[in-house]
Amino acid sequence: MNTQGKPVTSLAAVAYEAGKPLSLEEITVDVPKAHEVRIQIKKTAICHTDAYTLSGADPEGSFPCILGHEGAGIVESVGEGVTNVKPGDHVVALYTAECGKCKFCRSGKTNLCGAVRATQGKGVMPDGTSRFKNKNGEPLLHFMGCSTFSEYTVVADVSVVAVDPTAPLESACLLGCGVTTGYGAAVKTADVQKGDTVAIFGAGTVGLSVAQGAKARGASQIILIDINDSKKKYMNEFGATAYINPTKDLKEDETIVSKLIEMTGGGLDFTFDCTGNVKVMRDALESCHKGWGVSVVIGVAASGQEISTRPFQLVTGRIWKGSAFGGIKGRSEMGGLVKDYQKGSLKVDEFITNRRPFVEIDEGFRDLHTGDSLRTVLTFN
Ligand code: NAD
Ligand code: DAO
Ligand code: ZN
């Protein structure tokens, strides 16, 4: 059936209120306007940010909305003026847009883009309106410019990239967030070099992806730190050389900082926070080598949290920085990541620990809390 130019009916998980269960229902997805793209989502994974916003802990979360930001599918139709994708293209939705024209994009210094920033944060399309409505005709907000928990979604053309159609969409969808974030943080934000020492706090999808990036660069030591022993089984696969559980592997007079400094003869060249815990962020900074160690904050902390350390840590040469989406420019660099995946140098499928039909999205959210789960991929029929 030709759906182009017409509103479509779509199965979606609607988040009506923070802290309330998702409502699986049919919604209407409007025709894409100028510079917009309507995508039939085939695969979407669930990330902690979706759970964080649904829980109500995200002060910027607005409801009712369609969550989901790690998704891939096929372009169903495009609005006027769209030139970067066409119907039938296999695509990944991008929560970090790339317009190529704004001050950020032209700077060559960041992957952040200003093009849709303000409206994306408010849960609407660039013209200030939503493309989603429920059966009662009430508008539903967009989320992170993606809203992949709907079989059909509409995104801005700057927020979507076409990928090689021979790459499985379930793998492509993971490149929409977790894997790219960790891998990019190691190879791009930190630019880890051969022989460098690396410590990663948090061995989830993001942390393990940092590990594989550090391994690809030839790091000499890759130390994973996690309070959950069930992640230890992944350490070899992603290139880690040691695993420390600070709740049980430290001697009485040791701290995680003193242990890491001792293991590396003075501290790490690079550390990464992939937990979102501000105390861990401090430990990560203070485990860095005096004079040059760099600590990269990737984890998203709960609302109202602040980081602290003694300023002397910075005076004596440690550097604290952050990374969003691994510093990767979604539209110009996603193709390269897909190629790396296809030639086997970037692990992606290894992160899929659960597969479910989309209607099992609630169980998918529960998977996030089981010890050894990395990513659950949901499939639309
Ligand atoms: P995850 O929950 O799968 O992994 C987090 C890991 O940290 C878990 O294994 C957990 O056991 C461990 N952990 C929790 N507290 C710890 C502590 N005190 N010490 C050591 N380990 C601890 O999450 P993920 O999907 O890998 O994401 C990691 C973080 O990155 C989250 O905060 C997420 O919101 C954030 N994130 C940031 C970006 C970005 O662009 N900056 C993108 C995606 C995700
Ligand atoms: O440009 O001001 C801005 C914000 C860009 C958004 C970057 C988001 C990084 C963290 C996302 C959390 C995980 C999906
Ligand atoms: Zn831009």
Automatic annotation (TrEMBL):
Q: Which cofactor does it need?
A: Zn(2+)
Give the organism the record lists. Zygosaccharomyces bailii (strain CLIB 213 / ATCC 58445 / CBS 680 / BCRC 21525 / NBRC 1098 / NCYC 1416 / NRRL Y-2227)
Q: Return the similarity comment.
A: Belongs to the zinc-containing alcohol dehydrogenase family. Class-III subfamily.
Q: Which NCBIfam families match?
A: adh_III_F_hyde
- Alphabetical keyword list: Metal-binding, NAD, Oxidoreductase, Zinc
Q: InterPro entries attached here?
A: ADH-like_C (IPR013149), ADH-like_N (IPR013154), ADH_3 (IPR014183), ADH_Zn_CS (IPR002328), ER (IPR020843), GroES-like_sf (IPR011032), NAD(P)-bd_dom_sf (IPR036291)
| SUPFAM superfamilies in the record | GroES-like, NAD(P)-binding Rossmann-fold domains
CDD domains attached here?
A: alcohol_DH_class_III
GO CC terms in record: cytosol
Enumerate the PROSITE patterns for this protein: ADH_ZINC
Q: Where in the numbering of this chain does the Enoyl reductase (ER) domain appear?
A: 19-378
Record EC number:
1.1.1.284
Q: Which GO terms describe its molecular function?
A: alcohol dehydrogenase (NAD+) activity; S-(hydroxymethyl)glutathione dehydrogenase [NAD(P)+] activity; zinc ion binding
Quote the catalytic activity from the record. Answer: S-nitrosoglutathione + NADH + H(+) = S-(hydroxysulfenamide)glutathione + NAD(+); a primary alcohol + NAD(+) = an aldehyde + NADH + H(+); S-(hydroxymethyl)glutathione + NAD(+) = S-formylglutathione + NADH + H(+); S-(hydroxymethyl)glutathione + NADP(+) = S-formylglutathione + NADPH + H(+)
Q: Tell me which Gene Ontology terms the entry assigns under biological process.
A: formaldehyde catabolic process
This protein is called what?
A: S-(hydroxymethyl)glutathione dehydrogenase
Q: What is the lineage of its organism?
A: Eukaryota, Fungi, Dikarya, Ascomycota, Saccharomycotina
Tagged with keyword NADP? no
